[in-house]
Amino acid sequence: MGKLEIEKLSDSNFILQMGPHHPATHGVLRLFCEFEGERVIKITPDIGYLHRGIEKLSETKTYPVAMTLTDRLDYISSMINNIGYCLAVERLLNIEPPPRAKFIRTVVSELTRLSSHLLWLATHALDIGAMTVFLYAFREREQILQFFEKICGARLTVSYPRIGGVRFDINSFVLDEIYKFMDTMLNRIDEYETLLTENRIWIARTKNIGVISAAEAVSLGLTGPALRASGVYYDVRKHMPYDAYNEVEFEVPLGENGDTYDRYLCRIREMRQSVFIVKQCIEKMPKGEIITDKAIDIDISPERKRLFVAEDSLWSGFIAFLDEKRELIPKGEIYSAVEAPKGELGFYIVSDGGGKPYRMRIRAPSFIHISAIPKLCEGHFLADVIAIIGTLDIVMGEADR
Amino acid sequence: MAEKIKKAATEASLKIAEQLRRIFYDYIVDIKEFRGQVLVVVNKEKIKEIIKYLKEEQGFNHLQDLCGVDYYPQKPRFEVVYSLFSIWRRLYIRLKVKVDEEDPEIESISDLWQSANWLERECFDMFGLRFKGHPDLKRILMPEDWEGYPLRKDYPIEGKEVWKGFREIVESGV
Fold first, then answer.
1. Contacts of residue A52 in chain B, CB cutoff 8 Å?
2. Which domains does chain A have, with CATH numbers?
3. Among A77, A169, A226, B5, which residue has the fewest nearby CB atoms (within 10 Å)?
4. Is the pLDDT at B22 greater than 80, yes or no?
């Protein structure tokens, strides 16, 4: 009898519910974990706790207004979300921002990438137990957020880019400050590396954890640094260039083993490349307009605009649409992707000729990365699950939408 | 320069679309091009075979996106859209399938790409389209006992009623 019970006990697996409000899950992710001893047998992620129906909501907003919803996707890199959305609508309308706007967009998106990677580094290291990095990384992140404040007045949900350009020009003082900060940033990245790269504990916790082969990473749909750490050369900035990425030189860092340590190294190297891109952009920054004449604008009320906008321009046409249904936005559908810090962020917009998106689909990298957690965690310890969640760099605002 | 590359990519995608027409003649409904992106409208029966052909013979190894669209009063009502990308050829192609409301079933491609698993689940959750051969087709973003499919056009923006689970909490007075 007793023996039987013991056998039964050892047979039964230990079940653990992690989340939805666990500090290491970076939001409201719930994991349903099944263990044998301390080894993971099966993990089932459960998401949807932050679902706000952004895709449905955007169907009721006009194109310029729907942009503010994209801020709330990946709320730590809202600048890139905005740019991704604007690019999709621009391609739909067949307009192009002026060169200066393109360069400004590239500068701010690389600054966003830096700030997002800094937050990732801080929390990832904190989860694994390296407290110091957290404080170091937040010091620099604060500076980047202050630049955003100087550029557009907002720190997190910026809504700075506009369809057809950007909202404000950056003055040369701020550009100088950013340029100077980029030099210190390089030293700071070295500083983080002295804390982690050759740290014995860090290596023990990250090497050979969550290994994924190149073929499997593609099949799982991983993108961004998570895919490149497995050695697959795929970067939207190179494969489908947008904004000024054609005109700057940069490398795409690749990993070899596809483990947590390689993903760490990839992101660190990417931060260095971001610094170089920002510096090049500021050096090459052309003068001129920051928004095209054809752009749809939201800053002036429709009544006032009707007073001084020519009848036949797309501008006035769009306003006219707001009152009565007229076909001014071309009919069609467009898929446009940007390289967000987390991976490939895609917008698929269907237009039926009205002033509101008929359907706006958001391809969120975090959503697909979470679906890869069960595969990555197979056969690892509970403590490694935390490292794997950290290394994928997920944000629930984007996964649940 | 960049324009030239884009144009060449579009032409290459169009060539692949034409080749699809040659192989799966009866099952290709339409080939369109809009802003340099090639769209192939495909018959529902052969969708999986066509995607398999594109993946294995033409090197479209990255499933960028899979989503549904609802054209409410029209018939057939739904569309499922597949965005495929070839990482090494740098080509993009989009496939589209029309699905009826009466028979909202379509073959699953979750054995071709593991990422399709969750994308199809989301499509089911939001539109109520059923994917044949999917290993675990259940709701993903909405609660399991949710009624209705939120992204359908006849579903009101503020929802139909308060969710059962929330009502229980309110009524229990905790």
1. none
2. 54-295+329-400 (1.10.645.10)
3. B5
4. yes
What is the pLDDT averaged over residues B78-92? Answer: 88
Provide the pLDDT for residue A347.
92
Could you give the number of structural domains in chain B? 1
Of the residues A47, A218, A230, A331, the best mutation for testing chain B's interface (the one with the most B CB atoms within 10 Å of its CB) is A218
Domain that includes residue B166, residue range: 2-172
The interface predicted TM-score of the complex, written ipTM, equals 0.89
Task: Give me the residues of chain A with pLDDT under 70, please.
Answer: 1-12, 294-328, 354
d(C-alpha B95, C-alpha A331), whole Å:
18
Q: Which residue has the higher pLDDT, B4 or A3?
A: B4
What is the Cα–Cα distance from A255 to A178, expressed in whole angstroms?
29
Note the maximum CA span of chain A. 91
CATH number assigned to the domain comprising residue B132: 3.30.460.80
Query: Which of A60, A234, A358 lies nearest to residue B157, judging by beta carbons?
Result: A60
At A129 the pLDDT is 83
Spatial CA neighbour of A364 closest among A333, A389, A400, A390: A400
C-alpha–C-alpha distance, residues A128 and A107, integer Å: 32
Please give the residue that has the higher pLDDT: either B98 or A294. Answer: B98
